Amino acid sequence: MAIRVLLVDDQPLLRTGFRMILEAEQDIAVVGEAGDGLQALDQVRALQPDVVLMDIRMPRMDGVEATRQITGPGRDGPAKVLVLTTFDLDEYVVEALRAGASGFLLKDAPANELVQAIRVVAGGEAMLAPSITRRLLDKYATHLPSGEEPVPDTLHTLTDREVEVLKLVARGLSNAEIAADLFVSETTVKTHVGHVLTKLGLRDRVQAAVYAYESGLVRPGAQ
Description:
47% of the residues lie in helices and 13% in strands. The protein has a five-stranded parallel beta sheet, sandwiched between helices. The termini are far apart. The protein has helices at 12-23, 37-47, 63-71, 93-99, 111-122, 130-139, 160-170, 175-182, 186-200, 205-214; strands at residues 3-8, 28-34, 51-55, 80-85, 103-106. It is globular and about 50 Å long.
């Protein structure tokens, strides 16, 4: 079945452009559009999309609050949110990730990246591109812990190998890249990632990356 996508952006021309790109794909169907967060909530309830392509800055209700309501407790459907941001990266992207977004994408990303991101998010994975993640974390380095703060108690529930995996997830590495780095199989990595998410009470890799930085486990700029 085709991936059902809802386009949310206050600029009609951008929505038209995204629609043209996505409707050219056989496995993706654009089921609706919305110009602000309130309309997005109505459309999610009515159309039950698989993925919501969500702008951040919009009138009436911004993308952060809309994301929180779409993905939060008591949500009406299984919709995943892929946040759209500008080249300079919105200051609200971190908040959107905390609110439950499954990833973020630059508005000027090539068409193939947009299509791939939607497929990745629809498949239940997080869209965590290393280059964009590093730029985002560099931009907010002054707002993140320095690494000198006490480590949260929850982090002590992880094994040494799970901590290693969490650090690599925070750097934006894929399962295949982590497997190559640690000389283990991808299946083993998936198992470790699953344990990390379960033990820390996190939903996906995006929240794991945010947790790693906010807890001080990983410092911005560190390799």
